[in-house]
Amino acid sequence: MSTTWHILGAGSLGTLWATRLARAGVPVRLILRDQARLASYASGEGLTLVEQGIARTYRVTGETPDSPEPIHRLLVACKAYDAPGAVAQLQHRLGPDAELILLQNGLGSQDAVAAQLPQARCIFASSTEGAFRDGDWRVVFAGHGYTWLGDAARPTAPLWLEDLQAAAIPHEWSTDILTRLWRKLALNCAINPLTVLYQCRNGGLQAHQCEVATLCAELTELLEWCGQPAAALDLHGEVQRVIQATAANYSSMYQDVANARRTEISYLLGYACQAAARHRRVLPHLQQVQARLVELLVARRLPRD
Ligand code: NAD
Ligand code: KPL
């Protein structure tokens, strides 16, 4: 019997992983916020995955953070701003052999979690899969993609990748996961804030090409200062390709703001601007975009961080 996967966060990605692992017969348990959420979950049939219009429900056992069983493998599927606090609640259940897989976008939250748990192995992930919830305990698999996993401290791949293989979760072990995360952060910083400021789909940025190019030039410099030259290679070219390929889509940050949800700005633009400050450098356009975005968030009564 393989080790149980505890999944922290029954949102879009948490449900997407939990249902596919359960479908493959891998043992999974879902950690819900509190007794009220557990009661709501227990009153239903389980977790539903909608794939190509077909809905299938899987019975995955739910529990709360104060459940007594030890946790050996934890998939952290919360938003970046919730991850450190959510993991802290489970600290007493994580043994010295614990492994955490951190699915958060951006940078900053992974180091915060790893600093809380110096003995545990923290594996960072970067995913291009897309999913959204269309109801409580239901997720729609909206975009097929890939998940890269890696551990900057220990490059050996874990044996449990075979669980992901069995669950048909497309993945690859990456020996340069930080480069991947930085590259994704730079792409998100060049696209997402502008889609919020101009209230447009990704393709709408074709009308703001100069601004996109200026941001890409600053982000390229930042990646180089931060020792990430590989993440900087042809950043502008890739940003243009992503804008074209996803022209009809709304960025994740646009969707957060449109749905009055907190954004992950602190782990994207905020992290980039802080990294520049650590290197005593100024990135005027990136900082200006951050200031404009914060102003917009405050005007909409959304958290500024
Ligand atoms: P989500 O908001 O759908 O899900 C997060 C879940 O975590 C929510 O259900 C929330 O209630 C739960 N949660 C928060 N704190 C908790 C706690 N203390 N205990 C238990 N549960 C808790 O978010 P998501 O879209 O799944 O995104 C998760 C991360 O993955 C984000 O960093 C996001 O940027 C990244 N990501 C998402 C997608 C996607 O398509 N959804 C794609 C790539 C990357
Ligand atoms: O990842 C994205 C997002 O919307 O968060 C893309 C499509 C790359 C835009 O930055």
From TrEMBL:
Pfam families: ApbA, ApbA_C. InterPro entries: 6-PGluconate_DH-like_C_sf, 6PGD_dom2, ApbA, Ketopantoate_reductase, KPA_reductase, KPR_N, NAD(P)-bd_dom_sf. GO terms for molecular function: 2-dehydropantoate 2-reductase activity; NADP binding. One of its GO terms (biological process) is pantothenate biosynthetic process. GO terms for cellular component: cytoplasm. It is an enzyme of class 1 (oxidoreductase). Keywords: NADP, Oxidoreductase, Pantothenate biosynthesis. It comes from the Bacteria. Gene3D superfamilies: N-(1-d-carboxylethyl)-l-norvaline Dehydrogenase, domain 2 (1.10.1040.10), NAD(P)-binding Rossmann-like Domain (3.40.50.720). Its EC number is 1.1.1.169. Residues 176-291 form the Ketopantoate reductase C-terminal domain. It catalyses: (R)-pantoate + NADP(+) = 2-dehydropantoate + NADPH + H(+). Residues 5-152 form the Ketopantoate reductase N-terminal domain. SUPFAM superfamilies: 6-phosphogluconate dehydrogenase C-terminal domain-like, NAD(P)-binding Rossmann-fold domains. Pathway: Cofactor biosynthesis; (R)-pantothenate biosynthesis; (R)-pantoate from 3-methyl-2-oxobutanoate: step 2/2. PANTHER family: 2-DEHYDROPANTOATE 2-REDUCTASE, 2-DEHYDROPANTOATE 2-REDUCTASE-RELATED. Catalyzes the NADPH-dependent reduction of ketopantoate into pantoic acid. Belongs to the ketopantoate reductase family. This is 2-dehydropantoate 2-reductase. It comes from Pseudomonas orientalis.
